Amino acid sequence: MTATRFALARSAGSLAAGLSRRTGRGDGTTIGGRLTLLLDPTALAHAASDRDLALVSGTNGKTTTRTLLVAALSTLGPVVSNSGGANLPTGLTAALASDRVSHNGVLEVDEPFLPLVAAAVRPRAAVLLNLSRDQLDRYAEVARLAGIWRDALARPNSPSIIANCDDPLVVWAAMVAPEVIWVSAGQHWVADTAVCPACGGIIVRRDSGGWSSDCGLSRPAPDWTVDGDAAIDADGARHAVELAIPGEVNVGNAAMAAATATLWGVQPDAAFTAMSGIGEVEGRYLTATSRGVMARLLLAKNPAGWIEALSMLPAGDCGLVIAVNARAADGRDPSWLWDVPFEVLQGRFAVATGERSRDVAVRLRYAGVDHVRVDHEADALRIAGRNGPVEVLANYTAFQTYRRIVGDG
Amino acid sequence: MAESRRADPVRVALVFPTVLGTYGDGGNATVLAQRLRWRGFDAEIVSVGIDDSLPELADIYVLGGGEDSAQTLAVSRLRAGALTRAAGAGKPVLAVCAGFQILGESFLDGSGAVHPGLGLIDCRTDRLPGERAVGELLAECRIAEVGTVTGYENHGGRTVLGADAAPFAAVRNGVGNGDVGADGAIQGSVVATYLHGPALARNPALADELLSRVVGPLDPLDDVAESELRRERLTANRRARATGWRRQWRPPARQDS
Fold first, then answer.
1. Which residue of A has its CA nearest to B68?
2. Chain A contacts of B248, Cβ < 8 Å?
3. Would you write out chain B's pLDDT as a tens digit for each of its 257 residues?
4. How far is it, in rounded angstroms, from Cα A153 to Cα A141?
5. How far apart, in whole angstroms, are the C-alpha atoms of residue B52 and residue B74?
6. Chain B residue with Cα closest to A362
7. Which of A99, A102, A129 has the alpha carbon at shortest distance from A114?
8. Does the beta-carbon distance from B24 to A336 stay under 8 Å?
9. B residues 124-163 lying closer than 8 A (beta carbon) to A
């Protein structure tokens, strides 16, 4: 009976998704998943049954790490996954319901939904990347998310956890799980972990990368370590990590993915080789030409992400677009612009755009960065591209605008 | 010009940015320092770590918003007294959100326990009765030179002022203190508000008001970018008032609290 109900709900959802796509309302995953879940509230659990799933969550790097892990697990066969940022239960239900073939799967999950999704899909593994300030109008406080994770991971039948031991909030959440693989994946943004989540005291950081609090919470000994462009696995073997996508942060993400893939029996070298074929991730790092201007797209949603994106800029001259919106998906309050060290752009010329370009312009003025403000995103790209290739740094919905401008998605 | 008479740099103390800097309020120090430099003053931001002692010799002190656990840590460090002495000496102190709450007589931590504040402002903070106040905040500042102030508020606290504190502003849109239509407080040289944005980036007249208390009357600056931002935000506030507040999705509460 439940199987029949799930089959009907899945068909209805798929029909709705197809209608939504054909009428140009969207890619249909949300509406389809919503209808499926409405008709069968256990649809997510049902669609996940008999599969070996990994969940990926954290403030930054979800989509990239999911993509890298999909590449690694694809060496074993087909892998079901959710794309397009559809990382709420509706999107996950739609993704799983639309693929009846793949035994293995990788799902990225919006941080507060991790407990609900983990309880429903019973994953083999959960990858916990990092937690930092993001969309504070929704989440209010970062430490609260860590608490939500910790409560869920303390329950019996917790999945194997692959966690970034350089992030105290992640460690505090993950340490209650029975089985954890600790990866020293790095953490450049430390402003949200000055205070110990366990005792409210101060977290002391050492140059070695270690950290500790008076209550005894400290960095666990890493099983995996990132060292420059290499990863050292749990057996002490060193693997070159040669990625086509830029950024030190992504070597860390790749190490997290490789450590996870070992639970499926994928050897690290095979995993890293598979990952090296990833050149862009849903528009991130994509280089494309629009009306004669060559642009590379970099997504940065919050201070931690902006620090990483700014570090990816080429040293020499390049055009620069900074595009910021403040819609619901971005967070309604762009005060975080003042947490981003835009001062590193002094000496460059930037074009501010997006729905909150005026906030960006004020921020750049105080950062001493020469700039102009332009209302329309396409005009901004053209102006920034007068003397050569352009780096586009954009937050979430502004990034989607640029994907459309360069004809991607 | 008057500024050339001052030999020492103007020191802006940014108090505990690692714990009182969650909502971008560190930008207030940046704004103060830059607006001095643009006028030919030498200015320096002294970023005070949570384990450092607060400088006695700063000219302006700024405190920002932070998480519940950070508030109790910050206030425990402030009991050393440097901020109280600075305020007593009439030095401008700008305190935002959590920074405002801990300067009052008492405030609540995340578990609901009452903590004594620093007592620089005659006010007490408990919880807003309904939802957390999240959204644009528009108010009329009682300092005539500052006028209309705009920003973004994000707090669960309700702050009730006592007789010795005056409201910083009268709320036109948003919640503010959540009591008698007031936002923030002014008491002696302490100016407090719930405005993020940061407050001084969105309201440069407030920045200049605080600075003029240190260096005397200031020449106007060419604030074209700030004026454009203010116009846009005033329009957004009018629209928000017309449509009412939309409820936003929030994460589920923790089971143990």
1. A141
2. 137-138, 328
3. 444 567 799 999 999 999 999 899 999 999 999 999 999 999 999 999 998 999 999 999 999 999 888 899 999 999 989 999 999 999 999 999 999 999 999 999 888 899 999 999 999 999 999 899 999 999 999 999 999 999 999 999 999 999 999 999 999 999 999 999 999 999 999 999 999 999 999 999 999 999 999 999 999 999 999 999 999 999 988 887 766 544 443 444 443 33
4. 20
5. 11
6. B225
7. A129
8. yes
9. 132, 134-135, 152, 154, 156
- What is the β-pairing status of strands A125-128 and A160-164? parallel
Q: Which of B123, B141, B155, B196 is catalytic?
A: B196
Measure B213 CA to nearest chain A CA, in Å.
21
Q: What is the DSSP string of B185-196?
A: EEETTEEEE--B
Separation of alpha carbons A217 and A205, rounded Å: 12
The two structure tokens encoding residue A199 = 């005792």
Tell me how far apart the alpha carbons of residues B107 and A378 are, in angstroms, rounded to a whole number. Answer: 49
Token pair of B88 as six digits: 């007593």
Enter the tokens of residue A144.
């609260």
d(Cα A35, Cα A16) in Å, to the nearest integer? 8
Distance CA A27, CA A404 (A): 14
Would residue B97 show up in a list of annotated catalytic residues for this protein? yes
- The torsion defined by the Cα of A83, A89, A90 and A94, in degrees rounded to 10, comes to 60
**Minimum-distance CB partner of A366 among B30, B134, B255:** B30
Owner of token pair 């409560």: A151
| Residues on chain A touching B201 (C-beta within 8 angstroms) | 338, 362-363, 366
The answer to whether B123 is a known catalytic residue is no
pTM here is 0.90
> Which pairing describes strands A203-205 and A160-164: parallel, antiparallel, or unpaired?
unpaired
B24 shares contact with chain A (CB less than 8 Å): yes
Task: Identify which of A142, A188, A403 has the alpha carbon closest to the alpha carbon of residue A310.
Answer: A188
